[in-house]
Amino acid sequence: MAPRTVRTVLGDVPPAELGVCNAHDHLFFGSPRLPGQELRDAGAATAELTAFGAAGGGSVAQWTPYGLGRRAADLPPLARAAGVHVVAATGLHQAVHYAPEVLDRLRGRLAEVFVSELTEGLATSGVRAGFIKVAGGFHALDAHARWTMTAAAEAHHATGAPVAVHLELGTGALDVLDLLCGELGVAPSSVILGHLNRAPDPVVHRQAAESGAYLAFDGPSRANHATDWRMPDAVRDLADAGFGDRLLLGGDTTTAGARSVNGGPGMPYLLRRVRPRLELALGSELVKQILTANPQRAFAVGWT
Question: Which residues does UniProt assign to the signal peptide (predicted)?
């Protein structure tokens, strides 16, 4: 059996090398839903990642999937310059983020694209993805979500790569688990559920954790969601129930205005403000586990 490693943009590394991990964020991202706020500036991305490293960060998982401006060729020099590991994503977001002709070109070969990006590289860059990102809908899974998750499951079975899921406003977690793990046979321990802080339902959180999936609380920079002020209670409840080993934290910076280099909270906010607040509620040892040991397991794969 191959040793478990994390596939970063600079190559496979032992999980312990990730250090303190921002388990969900974006260095580059562009969508027609956010005109004028695209993350395209390589200099700003380098400055943001460097600031995260200066705050004690060791790695970032970039959840930007296929077709949304990943700028794969820029990721290795950026990671080297900042001294921070970057794990890139393959996958596909909700249909609203793409022109219809882009989706049409992927019909019948989506799983093949995912596998190629995990094993050979993103486009012609040679930079290999380390996980698959897909997305659900608001309290439901539409045909697009089922198509992308079916392809993600195929790619997972072919490679072992973890599957990270954008939950629209934090909803639909149990439907996602029913599809990915129930119908499609993905091990729950290979599933990361994102944005659970946006729908702070303790019953759903508990049921999702009981499945064995990872639960990501990953949007502290978004003031319009129930993030910082409710996150400590939600995380503490899960930890007290015995699920401290299933929790992840991230920043999810998706617009230029949210970057710290542009006056927003940005990536450093996770360590500058969220970490000490959680340490008050949970204790430093549990927070250290959530930021280090948990993501090291969540993103580690015995690549096939």
Answer: none
The conformational region for residue 186 under phi > 0 = left, psi -120 to 50 = alpha, else beta, is: beta
The segments of the chain whose pLDDT lies below 70 read: 1, 220-228
| C-alpha span between 200 and 235 (Å, rounded) | 10
> Under a CB-based contact definition with an 8 Å cutoff, are residues 277 and 284 in contact?
no
Which fold is adopted by the domain 6-298? TIM Barrel (3.20.20)
Q: For the chain, what's the residue count?
A: 304
- 166 labelled ligand-binding: yes
Can you give the pLDDT at residue 304? 74
> Is 252 known to sit in a ligand binding site?
yes
Q: Exposed (0-12), middle (13-18) or buried (19+): which is 197, by Cβ within 10 Å? A: buried
The answer to whether 85 is a known ligand-binding residue is no
Residue 195 is labelled as binding a ligand: yes
Break the chain into its structural domains and give their ranges. Answer: 6-298
| pTM of the predicted protein model | 0.96
